[in-house]
Design brief:
six-stranded mixed sheet; single chain; globular; alpha/beta; 248 residues; four-stranded antiparallel sheet
């Protein structure tokens, strides 16, 4: 089975400055793939390219067998941005039902999505009165209500308490077990262990594309944060060595 997402030699420049530097990676179907890296590393830019709303300089992005951004993908891809993308003057329930209607879904599906993200008790509240973490969950409900094949989540657990974070990750894995593909970004390295596959990005470069166990085996350490540091240093040393060879 082909991958849900295939990225080949992707380059994105902004203001003449490289943001993504020849990225090639894949997101397997029916799994939770983590996109990890520090703030400013290019995670959001890569996600925007996959959704099809990012201008790219060169390379290709294929999503569910179609070019990224193709009109027929709109109902097949769910996207949660870092900034809440819901209407502040509507209640949580009204937002979910509005987005459900756009996907041809009913009130039952909308109300279930609200409950699934832990907002059942706040369903009647105006979004404008919610906390930042609650607004993010309201946006998540709206992204999931159409039952998309591919779900792209940009920092979905930021601002959530530990119990809710665990509940959300359990929901993500339940969705993957049912066949949904998820790409989840985070700058919190302890979330790496919750993923089936990892993409580690730093300064616009892909440092790792493997399973958590393979990353541990390659670096000889169990702690994934330590493993990532070793990979980053090895990657930087390799670039420095290549640069020195070119000069000589």
């Amino acid at each position: 089975m082909e991958d849900a997402v295939s990225v080949r030699d992707l380059v994105v420049e902004r203001g003449g400055r490289p943001v993504l530097r020849s990225i090639s990676c894949a997101v397997p179907r029916g799994a939770v793939t983590g996109l990890l890296g520090p703030s400013g590393s290019g995670k959001t830019t890569l996600m925007r390219a996959i959704v099809g709303v990012q201008t790219i300089t060169s390379g290709t992005v294929t999503v569910l067998g179609r070019p990224a951004g193709a009109p027929e993908l709109r109902r097949r891809v769910g996207y949660l941005t870092q900034a809440p993308s819901v209407y502040a003057d509507l209640t949580v329930r009204e937002n979910a039902r509005y987005f459900a209607a756009l996907h041809g879904r009913g009130h039952v599906e909308a109300d279930r999505a609200v409950t699934d993200v832990g907002l059942g008790a706040a369903a009647g509240q105006l979004v404008g009165t919610l906390s930042g973490g609650q607004r993010s969950r309201a946006s998540l409900a709206c992204a999931l209500v159409g039952d998309p094949e591919l779900v792209i989540l940009d920092e979905p657990t930021v601002g959530q308490d530990p119990v809710l974070r665990a509940d959300l990750w359990a929901q993500f894995h339940a969705m993957a077990a049912a066949g949904t593909t998820l790409l989840v970004s985070s700058h919190v390295m302890d979330e790496a262990a919750r993923c089936d596959r990892l993409l580690l990005i730093r300064e616009g470069r892909l440092v790792a594309d493997d399973t958590p166990d393979a990353v541990r085996a390659a670096t000889g350490v169990e702690d994934l944060e330590t493993a990532f540091l070793r990979l980053i240093r090895a990657n930087e040393a390799g670039r420095d060595g290549a640069a020195g060879a070119e000069k000589s």
